[in-house]
Amino acid sequence: MPDIDGSYLAEPAGAAGSGAARGGVLVVHDWYGLLPHVRGACDELAEAGLVALAPDLYDGRTASNPEQAEALANAMDRAAAPGRVDEAVKTLRARVDGGPVGVLAWSLGGSYALDRATAGDVDAAAIYYAFLESDDAARLRCPVLLHLAETDEFDPPEYYEAFVAALRVAGTQVEVHTWPGTEHSFANRDVPLHTPEQAAEAWSITVAFLRRHLLGGRP
pTM for this one? Predict the structure, then answer.
């Protein structure tokens, strides 16, 4: 699949330029960068009938361990990141001819994806181990799928509890899964913390969620 301005694009077979694909997903990487598992997720979403676009917030740099990832996260241009996410959404919406657009993201990327979703023009959000503060969460109106690790060294469970509570108070549909025997980054296939069985089950739920909200159950 081609790159577009450093972003990775995956489209259903025969969909490019045909107008046939009507749903899209913005895919935002975690603090390890745009590793193969992110491209793989895009390819699998395309196989499921969705256009997927993953912007690169690190300009081609990636990490293989938490120390490197932390350094990249600290060095990234955080002021520019929301603009990149916005541009990716515009590009994606054009590829689906104005059809519904959702977001899929992990950790660091989840924060940017959730913030983007508060704009009100995102139709579904599938998020792994990321949250918004309660005031920001109250502005989310699209359905939210949240995958959490059983043990998370970065975010205490009360952060997620407050996030989910704020969503429910606001009347936002939210589905939460906490995966036993997992740690933060369990869904990243390219790092040692990957937990294959739980990650695979979570992924199956994620694809079904995105298809349901973005394709309306169409085959």
Answer: 0.94
